């Protein structure tokens, strides 16, 4: 295939093909071909810089260090489409709590009502720094 000659991207490959051939689903076919092309995957320039992983201090007590994240949009169950996931680093105890949205206010109210009210205020709360935190 023409794509293998110089390993261009999807757009360039489509243009090369269209210069020589015509068929109804050329755009879709070329896109599928490029998506699964091993040479493309191996030769792509990765522009994402990778930072070293941060180091966490070892937890020394239950519920002192908590990791939180929000998952969703999930299929609605009685109006809930998101879940707040809380994980205690010491015990790896994990709980998920339903939420109707992922607004910062909702996340903080849920965290307070269902985690902090039961286990106390943790020393550290770690998140992925998403917009809802």
TrEMBL record:
GO BP annotations, alphabetical order: DNA integration
Highest taxon, organism lineage: Eukaryota
Segments passing through the bilayer: none
EC number assigned by the record: 2.7.7.49
Main enzyme class: transferase
PROSITE patterns: INTEGRASE (PS50994)
Listed InterPro entries: Integrase_cat-core, Integrase_H2C2, Retrovirus_Pol_polyprotein, RNaseH-like_sf, RNaseH_sf
Location of the Integrase catalytic domain: 55-133
Pfam family, one: rve
GO molecular function ontology, one term from the record: nucleic acid binding
UniProt protein name: RNA-directed DNA polymerase
């Amino acid at each position: 295939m023409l794509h293998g000659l110089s390993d261009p991207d999807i757009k360039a490959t489509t243009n090369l093909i269209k210069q020589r051939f015509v068929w109804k689903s050329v755009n879709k076919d070329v896109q599928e071909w490029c998506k699964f092309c091993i040479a493309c995957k191996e030769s792509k320039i990765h522009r994402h810089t990778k930072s070293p992983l941060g180091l966490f201090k070892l937890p020394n007590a239950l519920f002192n260090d908590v990791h939180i994240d929000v998952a969703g949009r999930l299929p609605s169950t009685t109006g809930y489409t998101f879940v707040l996931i809380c994980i205690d680093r010491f015990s790896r105890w994990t709980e998920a709590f339903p939420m109707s949205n992922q607004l910062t206010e909702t996340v903080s109210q849920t965290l307070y009502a269902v985690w902090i009210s039961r286990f106390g205020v943790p020393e550290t709360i770690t998140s992925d720094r998403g917009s809802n935190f």
